[in-house]
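Changelog note: in this version the structure field was regenerated for every chain. One regenerated record is shown below for reference.
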Amino acid sequence: MAAVSSTSPASLPGTLGALRESGHVERDIKGEIRANLLDALRSGRDPWPGIVGFADTVLPQLERALLAGHDVVLLGERGQGKTRLLRTLAGLLDEWTPVIEGSELDEHPYSPITPASIRRAGELGDALPVSWRHRSERYTEKLATPDTSVGDLVGDVDPVKVAEGRSLGDPETIHFGLVPRAHRGIVAINELPDLAERIQVALLNVMEERDIQVRGYTLRLSLDVLLVATANPEDYTNRGRIITPLKDRFGAEIRTHYPREVDAEVALVAQEAQLDTIGAQVGAPLLEVLARFSRHLRASAAIDQRSGVSARFAVAAAETVAGAAVRRAALTGEAGAVARPVDLEAVPTVLRGKLEFEAGFDADGSGRDEQGEVLTHLLRRAVADTARSRLRGLDLAPLAEAVAEQPVRTGARIPAADVTAALPAVDVLTDIARRLDATGTEAPGPMAAAAELALELLYLTCKLAKEESDDDTVSYG
């Protein structure tokens, strides 16, 4: 979530008495989310900004679960946007919510739950000071790791307080963990199966009875939390599992997936890749190539599909292509960096380590060569599929015939202006430029990118030859 100011509006009530006079009504966390979600659905406002590809599958299931007041676990392979989806839940909270000023668990002024806050409320009455918390502060996220302790999640006895003379059974000796401190908020636990089973047991009471147990002492707290979690399929992680009693306490288990349509994957890459920061223009045709490349990888028998091919792979690929374009512009002295198909060659070598291959495609010896061959083949398929889709119906024969007579040279050290200057004067190039988003600009970069994609299609369909030189140049002819 974007950073927000922690300063609440001055018009909000500052005491319990003023809060009552304002007509404020207390709602539990699940009721608050339910009401705000329904308001968004009725008004047509998107409650899930930035979430791509789940509109007809995951989101309706999640909305039903939240409206039912269920704790939720999202189950899916890596890089399917599970954490991103959970973080948008904070947007369904009230923008500002009142808390007892200085309270350890940010209790509601109407409902103090710790002994200290109950005592203060009784002593001060309507003069009890009230402060306000922004919704961004009410979302807590924890990455589950094997070394996570019960004290981290639930709490433990504070030895300092014991040393001060309090007894072990005194509730005020407890140092609260992450879950109690998220009272009246959302707790998200990433990779829940990675928690040791004995740690998962500690969450049972939190989810069902809404109390906590520390060192044999039960502290009755009316905790108000929405617990959400993510997990990879159990047949992949092998590092652990969600214990049956805890799994039973989640009201909903929702399966996520990778984008099912090419357009959705392209939109996701365009949204997530930091292309402006890198300083290169990567056109929609090249983003489509990378999206199709990821989809081919997910269907390949050479790739370990239990691990999956993360959506972050396509995002990193787009950023790699942008980096290659920036480097090429620096070497050639071009004014602006515009990615071209020649920059795609960097993807298999740079990003090979982000993939897990099946046995027989190991990273040693000949296995590494086989990995490279697989990736190069699938990338060429993605290039061909994209070019065919976008240039369908165009007769590229005049271009092939002209280039056969007058070869076109390109490469990592060839400026876009040199590529466009070498192109033959054939009418079909105008249609190619229009189909590949290269019209409307006088800069040579987009036209060079469009022409390279068309020439690569002619090469991949055996209509042209392609000769690679040691000086990083390529000649189509």
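Spot check on this record: Residues 366-391 form the longest helix (26 residues). Residues 1-5 have pLDDT under 50 and may be disordered.
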